[in-house]
Amino acid sequence: MILVGSRTSPYVRKVRVLLAERQLAHQFLEESAWTKETTVPRYNPLNKVPALALDDGESIYDSAVIAEYLDALSGGHFIPADPRARARVRCLEALGDGIADAGITAFLERKREVSRQDNAWIARQMDKVTAGIGAVGAALGDRPHLGGERMDLADVACACALFWLEFRMPELRWRETNPRLGAWAQRLESRDSFQATRPPA
Predict the structure, then answer these.
(1) Residues of the chain whose pLDDT is less than 50?
(2) With a threshold of 0.70, does the pTM exceed it?
């Protein structure tokens, strides 16, 4: 398998954490979808990362699809079989991805010339980010992980999104305003899978 993606993408990091946790053999092809010379469309016609090139030449894409594939491939662990528990994990995965979606949208809008930026649009996206962080905190409650005692895909997706916010929007300081999330983040950061997938400084 070849994982195609950027080291700074929260969606790619989600997949890389799963690959590391399940110790699945793969190659990592570092590619940006934003360069003129990008090869990403060879693996995903939408020119988005991550994409996973399988050994038979077929590619699968969208981090949620790849995550489900990898979990099934490795015998299941991060996505529960029970329908209700499964739906909760997938919903929280969508929450994490949605936080990343909104954060990236605001980040890209801020990179435009000041005169062309839509401040109302940025504010709308940041409202989603703030609400999303609050929802992750509410879902965590007093438990060590979002699913209870054991880390699952919900933790991976939400953590990768929140860690991306720290990387690109450190001014949000979500750990300071959410101490329980801060403690949860520290537990996850201590794992080899998260340490090995940190974005470059």
Answers:
(1) none
(2) yes
Q: Which two tokens stand for residue 146?
A: 């979002």
User: What is the arrangement of strands in the sheet containing 2-5, beginning at the earlier edge strand?
Assistant: 27-30, 2-5, 51-53, 59-61
Q: What structural domains does the chain harbor? A: 2-73 (3.40.30.10), 83-191 (1.20.1050.10)
Q: Give the count of alpha carbons within 13 A of 113, CB side only.
A: 2
Measure CA 107 to chain center. Answer: 16
Amino acid at 113: E
Could you give the CA distance from residue 153 to residue 29 in angstroms, rounded to a whole number? 23
Side-chain half-sphere of 94: how many Cα atoms within 13 Å? 6
Residue 21 Cα to chain centre, angstroms: 15
CA 25 – CA 63 distance, rounded (Å): 18
Predicted confidence at residue 201, as pLDDT, reads: 81
Strand-pair partners of 61: 51
